[in-house]
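Hi Y.,

Following your request, here is the sequence exactly as I used it, all 410 residues.
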Amino acid sequence: MSAPPLKIVFQNKSGLPDNKIYTGFVGQSALTATNVATGAPIAISTYAAPSWYSLDKLSQGISTTMIGGGRVYFCYDKPWTFQRAGYEPSPVSPSDPNYYLRYDKMELTYTGAPADVADTTSIDYFAIPLALNVYSGGTGGTLVGSVAGPTAANAVIAALGGLTNPQNSAVVRAQGTNAFARVIGPGVYPPPPGLPPSPYDNFTTYLQYLASTYGPASGGTIATIAGRFAGTPPFATPQTQGQDYKFIATIDAGLNITLKGTGSVVGSHTLLYTKAQLTASDGIYGANPQFSIDGAAPSNPLNDVYGWVTGDLLSGLNVGAVGSTVTVSGQPVGKMSSSQWYNTKILSQYFGKLQPGNPLNYNRWAATMAPLSQAYNFAYSDRFAHVTATLNTGSPSYVDTLQIVILPER
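Below is the corresponding structure, written out as tokens. Let me know if you'd prefer a different format.
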């Protein structure tokens, strides 16, 4: 059975005319959509058949019954160009032909399933401020949900520019015109000795604090990673089955973190995350560090219990919960189990509030973005905050319209 039609409409508050803003669907597994104004099909944009649509050509929006994941890009002035099959532009490489173009992306899946959602993301970079609204009965009907964006792009650029050393070194501006393209996030820089080098703190100071100060004062334990993993369908292996888990985290003098513990299905195991893996851009920042299980060759996290446990550890490091001495309801946050960290009935403030006086003991990019936008600002934002808009077209939501708002510059 096909999903009910979902209408996607665009509200342009950017100050640019509609014919200077382009959108395209990239990386979807499937797309069934039409231009409401003309009835013409909307196609996935690929290397073989680039398909970009200026907003003036989508004045009545898009009607869809299937969007299989992927990204929805927005581009100012002109769309980026594919360089090969499977290509998407690198936000960090000056040699990329699209480097100085201004573009951004959002994500959505629409299949008619109750879990379908849309979100905006500022994990990799910030370029174009976006917001989302979902309605029942069209944009004149009932607002069912939203994802707020920053009130103005310039305020975000100024706030993010101060996070790097030297300041503004992650801000990309076109040569000659000085036109703003993006602020590069800390999770996409290449590992040393790759260029350009990251201008962001790499969490070494935080790990040193855990090893030399917090760990010794806490009997060697820096965190208790414990909770319930719901499982991953079709639950075919022990590690993808739902189960309880509890691992004790320690850190050694080399700043390597070890988790020792059990899953109620997989049994007892030891997980090792080296300093090099944690401090790489794709480590704590990028939420994709390689780690080893019981001394085996390192591998990246998968959608299984070990990946979920890894997510608990990385979430706690990003928000400053690991090693926090701040007391909430009579209990130090660092002594709580990891599942308590993202229970909003227990904790409601993160980052600097959990590490007062230690400004390098959390993800400062995420901390800066969190009050400005409800976009994903690190990979596990959804464990701590509202970052998605429901696309459930059935009871109780009855969503029939997604409005994508392109927000002002100032």
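The CA atoms of residues 42 and 330 lie 56 Å apart.

Thanks again,
Q.
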